[in-house]
Amino acid sequence: MDCIFCEIIKGNIPSEKVYEDEFITAFNDLNPQMPVHVLIVPKKHIVSAYELAEEDAELVGKAFLASKIIADKLGVNNGYRIINNCGEDAGQTVKHIHFHMLAGKTMGDKII
Ligand code: AMP
Ligand code: ZN
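A: This is the predicted complex of the input protein with zinc ion.
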């Protein structure tokens, strides 16, 4: 299996970690789209949101709970956006589930 995020989780590829616990790791996106652009990544290799199993439900909650800690740590608890691209049509490029956490300026445009 050739997964860049699994390699980051194992420490084989460097990243700027902003948070880590038993289940979740979070690091700065290599190509930030906002002043704060963190990827919140469950350590378990799950391809996408569509591939989630019943047993993974708690893990998704843990990713969102991690966002609260990160928001406090990075001083962006005034507001942030969490985005998940799931699958080809949504433009998912890394096939290991992750949540983009975007913050650091007022966001005007909303998709929905
Ligand atoms: P997505 O298009 O939703 O699959 O998002 C993948 C994200 O991973 C993109 O925003 C990339 O910039 C980011 N990315 C790819 N490789 C790395 C890396 N080695 N370290 C940090 N972020 C990465
Ligand atoms: Zn992986």
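The first strand starts at residue 17 and ends at 20. The radius of gyration is 14 Å.
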